[in-house]
Structure formats: C-alpha cells, structure tokens
Amino acid sequence: MEFEKLQHAAAHSQPPDVSMAKLTKDRQQTTHRLTRALLLSVVFLTFIWALGNGVPFSSQQQSKGPDVAKVQQCAIDNFHSDLSFLDPAVPIKADEFLERRDRLARALVASGVDAFVLEPGYTFQYYGNISQVDWEPWEPEERPFLMLVLPQTLETGEVVAKTAFLAPHFEEGRVRMLGIPSRDGAELDIVVWEEHWDPYATLMESHLFKQKKTTKEDGEEATHAPPKLMMDEEIRDFIARGLAATGFETVGLSPEAELVRQIKSPAEVELLRAVNTGTVMAVRAMRPCLVPGLTEDEVRDVLDAALLSVGFGLFFDIVLFEEHGALPHGGVRYWGDEADGGEHGDNPIVDHLPRAHYLGYSSDICRSFFIDPPKQQSSWLDRLNSFLPSCMGSSLFRRNDGTDLSSSSSPELRAEKFKVWDIVLEAQSAAAAAFMPNHTAAGVDIAARTIIEEAGYGYGFTHRLGHGIGIKAHESPYLNKWNKKVLLQPGMTFTNEPGIYLEGKFGVRHEDIYLVKEEGEAELLTGRRATGPYDP
Ligand SMILES: *[C@@H]1O[C@H](CO)[C@@H](O)[C@H](O)[C@H]1NC(C)=O
Ligand SMILES: *[C@@H]1O[C@H](CO)[C@@H](O)[C@H](O)[C@H]1NC(C)=O
C-alpha cells in the first residue's frame, strides 16, 4: 500500500511546464472529445496478489479522480443481485480424501512403487486437507514433516491406501490436532524422530519399511531392492536428497499418479464452477460501474473487494489498459517508473485477469472489454462536472503512472481492436470444440492456434492455449502444441485462454474453464462466455 501511495504521489507531481502544456493540450482534446461519441473500450488483465491489497478506497478520498467508493458499492450491489452460483459448491467431504488416497495407492501399484511421499502444500491439501500454511503459518522450515501413502492389498485383492507420517517427536501432538481425514477416525500412524536423530534413517528403520528386509537361511541379511519412493513434485530438494542418501530409491511422478489429481470428482467440478463463474460474474457486475478517471489499480481494488465480499480469497489479480495488455502477465510494478507520453485513443481496451480461491479451489479467467459510452451528452457532462476540475488535466482513464488514455485514436486502431477481439473468440470456440476424450493436449492448442495464424496474427499468440485447473490455478496437463502424448480424459478441467498481444498497441485474451465429458462437447464451467466487446 505504501508503495502505491508513493507511486500515486509521483504521478501527480510533474514539473509545472509539463503540466501547463498537458493542460492546454487536454483542453483541446476535451472539446474534441465532447463532440464525439465517446466509446471507451477497455481490456483488463487482473492478478490477485493477496488479501493485503483488499480494502481499496480509503486512500483515494482526494479531490482528484472519481469516487472510487461509489464505484465499489455499485459493483458489489450488482454482484450481490444473484449469488446462486455459490449454492452447489460444498466443501470436500472426509470420505473423498480417503478415496483420493485409495486411487493413488492403485496408481502406485501400477507404477511399481512402495510409497508416495509429500510435504504440506497443494498436493497434501489434495490428499490430506493440509496446506503449507496450515502446517507452518510462519515459514517453511527445515524439519521434515512428511505424509507417506503406501499401497496395501486386502485379502479380497482390493488395493487401498495405508497413510503414515514422519514427524518431529515434539510436533506429534500438533500433527494429531490437524484433523487430517483418516479411516474410521483411526489413530494416525506417525513415525517420530528426535531432534538429534537422522529423520530419514529413522524412517528407513521404522515398521513401514523394515518388513522389506528379508533374512537369508544362514541368518545373514539378504540383499534386497531398496524401498522405492515416488517424490511429489513439490517436495523440497534437501528432503529428496536426504531420502536418497539413506538408501531409498527415489523416482519422480508417474503419469498414473498424475492422473489421480487431473481427473476431478463431481464435488470438485462444482467448486470450480462456483469460483470461476463467480469471478466472471464479478467482472461483469463491475463493468457498468466504471467511470472515467479510474486507474488500473483502482479497478483492480474494486474487483478484489467484490470478490472478498462473497468469501472468495484473492491471490493474483491485475488490470491493464491498452498497450499494457500486450504483456500477457502484465509488468505489474514497472510502468510507474517512466512516464509514457504516447497517444492512447478513446477506445482503450481493458484486460482483466482476476483469480480467486473458494473452499480451496481456484479460478483463472480473463475478460477483455470496452466500457459503455455515456448514454447521452448531458449525462456525460454531469458526470464530467462531478469530478472537475481535477479531471481537466487528467483523463478518462488514468494509468497508475498518470498517463492519459483519452487522446483520440485512429479509426484503424479502433477497428483492429474489434477485429482482434473477434478472432480470439473464434480461436477459443475452435479449442472448445476440441476438448474431446482421447484428443491430445496438443490438438486443443493447435485448433486455436490455426485460427489465429490463418488470420495473420500467429506472431501475437505468444503462450500456450491453457492448462489444467483445480486446487492450483495451473495444474497438469498443459495444453501446448508439443504435448502430443497426453490424451484428454473425462473429468479433466482446463483453461481455454487464447490471446493476441500486439506490442505498443493492446492485447486481447478470452479465458474460460472447460470440463471434458464422457462424450460430446466439453462443459463450460464459467457460466457463459463473452459475447461481445461490450458484453464480457
Ligand atoms: C478441511 O480443512 C478445512 C479448513 O482448512 C476445514 O474447514 C474442513 O472441515 C476440513 N475438511 C475435512 C473433511 O476435514
Ligand atoms: C478412448 O480411448 C480408450 C482407450 O483406447 C477407449 O477405451 C475409449 O472408448 C475411448 N473413448 C472415446 C470417447 O473415444
């Protein structure tokens, strides 16, 4: 927040000569503006950073600029007019965590592995409902606390998961209090180590792996294959090396193990639908409330507050006007450094890429849109008057660096924005049609890319089409044109986010979420797609 204030102050302390020149120029432009139909177009890219960025308007009660608090209230009121999207979303039940571990156990047997090893993090959240912060609210520390999932074959031949833990002795009580879902409320099986012991050797000597040591007739210990452990992708390197140095064989994720989390349960699908539909609806609710003079950060704060108001957690949200949208992930903190005096046109595109969490699941959407032109000139004048005179030297939209977005743009640029908007939507439709079981991950990317290339903008589609989504915004499988080995399967959920980024001009991205079905077309999990530049 401090940094933002500084940036804000810097934006308003230009040398007087610059201000005078700008004022004169802006007066002419304002006259010109009032005689034209004012079509404001906006492209937003929003990244939700952190809860800390939340409450937006307290520092904005200054004479300059629009009434952000009013915009804020308008967005929240619109958003709250229909919150039925939240209804089908319920927290994941304890049984589902056990089922996930059983599915993992079967994948481990298929992969010829003795145990899966993971630390608190996203994967632990998936299998045991504990995130990294749940375990260590302070910071990740050096003492390993591990979950181990070991396949067990029952007499019936059924494979189920045995879950065990490795924890420092003094933390044992805290581990039991975490409430990790376990079978029939059974005691957790925890291997403990003292502070002066080697945790990995303790694990090797524990009951979990001891039975692997067979004894020869003559009493000599047999040579046996070392226990084989599959390392979760998030496990820290010193732990993997510690296990290997103690004699465990360590291997990476197998496709079978990855598939467990890639295929979403009906409960997960409803959570993804709720958080992604809600995030889109928040953008849609906010758009008609936007008024000239808002900065990128103010628009982001308005959206963040709307998302927080329904219990969503924020994690990465950014709003970008015009050519700032030509960087797919923005540049976030760099633009304020250098004033850019370019011409920005009165059809600024706004890219808006907000992300949120709800009950542990992630949204990842993007909307590129224009804001509505004023309904009639008189109401426009009223609105303009309401924030004069400060607005005189300002603009319809202000960047965070204070630069103007309202000088007239060429009709060619305006036409190109509309054209590109349509091409990206067409590319998104082509990809949506390719989300079929047994199609390759590459095929979906290629479907969208072909449309964009044929329209002559292949150079502007600089990233992959999308990725899996679940607890994390970015999960495997990844949709890029090289990933020909991975086949789509029913229950997988993906982002579909083609974009065209034209450096120095603007960028357009449309991003929605899809569920691959048993047969037929993929199901949209974002309520509805954008239908036009004025209807995101
Ligand atoms: C999972 O953890 C959350 C808190 O992080 C808790 O509210 C919820 O009840 C837990 N779920 C189960 C099934 O224990
Ligand atoms: C996908 O491929 C699998 C394995 O070849 C097959 O059993 C299944 O029927 C296919 N599904 C569809 C929808 O084509």
From TrEMBL:
<dbReference type="InterPro" id="IPR036005">
    <property type="entry name" value="Creatinase/aminopeptidase-like"/>
</dbReference>
<feature type="region of interest" description="Disordered">
    <location>
        <begin position="1"/>
        <end position="25"/>
    </location>
</feature>
<feature type="domain" description="Peptidase M24">
    <location>
        <begin position="417"/>
        <end position="518"/>
    </location>
</feature>
<feature type="domain" description="Peptidase M24">
    <location>
        <begin position="271"/>
        <end position="378"/>
    </location>
</feature>
<keyword id="KW-0812">Transmembrane</keyword>
<keyword id="KW-0472">Membrane</keyword>
<feature type="transmembrane region" description="Helical">
    <location>
        <begin position="34"/>
        <end position="52"/>
    </location>
</feature>
<dbReference type="InterPro" id="IPR050659">
    <property type="entry name" value="Peptidase_M24B"/>
</dbReference>
<dbReference type="InterPro" id="IPR000994">
    <property type="entry name" value="Pept_M24"/>
</dbReference>
<dbReference type="InterPro" id="IPR029149">
    <property type="entry name" value="Creatin/AminoP/Spt16_N"/>
</dbReference>
<keyword id="KW-1133">Transmembrane helix</keyword>
<dbReference type="Pfam" id="PF00557">
    <property type="entry name" value="Peptidase_M24"/>
</dbReference>
<protein>
    <submittedName>
        <fullName>Creatinase/aminopeptidase</fullName>
    </submittedName>
</protein>
